[in-house]
Write the structure tokens for this entry.
Amino acid sequence: MSLANQTVVVLGGSSGIGLATATAACAEGAHVIITGRSPERLAVAAATFDAEIRTVVLDVNDEPGTAALFADLSDVDHVFITAGALVLDAQLAPASDALRPALDTRFWGALFAAKYAAGKIRAGGSITFMSGTAGMRPLPGASVGSASCGAVDALARALALDLAPVRVNSIAPGYVDTSLLDGLLGDQRDAVLAEAAARLPAKRIGRPQEIADGVMFMMKNEYVTGITLVIDGGGLLV
């Protein structure tokens, strides 16, 4: 149960949970490939690794680009896709086009990754999607984003059957301290997170490395498929 000399592709690996997972895989001796939309952010991320990794500029919504990425690889062991978008949509007031990224990025990005990676994955390999606890306990004012989490969880379970023996799982984080919250919460970030932490049984917000631990577990344990692993500090209990 080691990732040594295995090929791990992290789509959305230039920051946050994706970067933490790529770092953990690299520390175990995996050959790591990370993707992201920004060449600059990828370069900064690559500089944090102790070993050489490969970076690829890619928007997960780009189906031909995703197809080309996996066509260029002879074999893959594990794929993790982190990309997602949360759009505020109270009472579905925004224009429909403004709501699409909340579903498109998470769901279609996951579908494209699975579609083009599955045929390259070696025995014992896996695909892991990232959803969120909003798929189980919807966020008020973010109905489409909440629905996207549920859709990805359902997709993982279905593909665990359709793509077997390739293993397919999803991971559902609760509040995690990443840059995604900066743009979403703005100046209210610290206050919102402090209030959330006070409600959680864990009494604090999660760290990217803690979610990465869960992803690593699903990559390495060859008897795990078709599950949604919740890591939320007990958030669903309260």
Strands lie at 7-11, 31-36, 54-57, 76-81, 121-130, 167-173, 228-231. The chain has a mean pLDDT of 94.
